[in-house]
Amino acid sequence: MKKETSKSIQVKTKYTEEGYYTFNRVHYRFMMRRKRLWFLLLLVLSIPLIIAYLFEPLFKNIPFAVLFLLCDTIIIIELFTYLIPDLQVKRTLREDASVLDFENEYTFLKEALKVKNSNATQKVEYTSLYQVIETEDYFYLYLNKVSAFLINKKELTKKEKEEICKLLSEALPKKYHYYEKKKFFKQK
User: How far from chain centre, in Å, is Cα 171?
Assistant: First the structure.
């Protein structure tokens, strides 16, 4: 459901299981771009090389060591970007199924976002957002490093999507990121 006025765009988004899975995948993919995580990833990937060096007689064949390292890399990347987010969502939904079907009503004003739900109403200045990630299906408005408002773009008209995109990208030029689904996720 949506309602447009001359000064604001209003949209209701119901949190769904698909939305939670998508958010966690986007969140972990974005985290993979962080330098600290790359350092940790490099550290973990160096373990096979250290093992190969220590047990040199077993790894005399250099192509085998390279293949071993490549397999380790693929496993770690898959683990961080697909397995962990999905397991986290399953655990969250098992522990608290009430997060599903939770509905937020967002009103995009010129300088702030008004968020209303059954519990409370709050106003969030755009400049106080940690970052905004836009994908093909959602806008993710991060309040901090780990929590975000999910706005389903299916609930918006093309004009509303463009207006929200313009509003957020102008308000947060260095904190606004767009990711195409085909580059961001594996295609099924």
Answer: 20
CA distance 153 to 13: 9
Between the alpha carbon of residue 99 and those of residues 71, 76, 90, 104, 118, the distances in Å are 37, 29, 12, 11, 12
pLDDT at 56: 67
Low-confidence spans in the chain with pLDDT less than 70: 1-7, 31-40, 48-49, 52-53, 55-65, 67, 78, 80-81, 181-188
State how far the Cα of 185 lies from the Cα of 188, in Å rounded to an integer: 9
Pair of tokens at residue 64: 């085998």
The answer to whether 23 and 148 are in contact (CB under 8 A) is yes
What values do phi and psi take at 2, rounded to 5? -145, 160
* Domain extent for 58: 24-95
Degrees to nearest 5, angle at CA 179 with 22 and 88: 25
pLDDT (tens digit per residue) in 47-98: 766 776 676 666 566 666 676 777 777 777 767 667 778 888 888 888 887 7
Q: Are residues 33 and 8 in the same domain?
A: no
Q: Where among 33, 68, 95 does a domain terminate?
A: 95
Task: Report if pTM > 0.90.
Answer: no
d(CA 30, CA 22): 12
